[in-house]
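Workshop exercise sheet. Pairs work together: one partner reads the sequence aloud, the other fills in the structure field after running the prediction. Swap roles for the next sheet.
Pair: D.N. / O.F.
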Amino acid sequence: MATGHSARCRCSRSSASGPSLAPHTFRWAGSAGSRSPPPSQLACSRARCLTWLAVAASIPVGLLACALLVINNLRDIPSDELAGKRTLAVVLGDQRTRALYTACVALPFAVAVVMAPAAPLTLITLAAVPLAAPPVRQVLRATAGRGLIAVLGETGRLQLAFGLLLTVGLAVRF
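Structure field:
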């Protein structure tokens, strides 16, 4: 398509999962004579629209990814301070970083509950709560150093389980 060609996003303004957040008109930003849209436009043309449910589903996934980063940075606070690095964990300090980790692990379950009216099976993510408890307990007990390596692995398993359960909860409709 040539530069300046307009296309309409074909998503409906509202659906069972709520109103779309996507812009309904966009312009191709490719060079003149280009036959395919740029990658930024492919997202709209392939996904059709971005619903509030899609945005909500991205929040717990992102929070659990952040939990992995936070626990890794928590483990590295002493060496980062010695090296003069100013990571978020160094700036927040040990106790606040532990609180941040706990929030990053707990909030995904709250978001799943908020999504339940639109996608009731997202509540199956609550089956992953037993995987969340041990790493949070370790972090709140002030485990440090090598002890946090196990927490890192447990957090990764939690992220995997939660992600799989969320996918099933969003994919299955009844």
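Discussion prompt: Residues 6-47 form one domain. What would you look at next?
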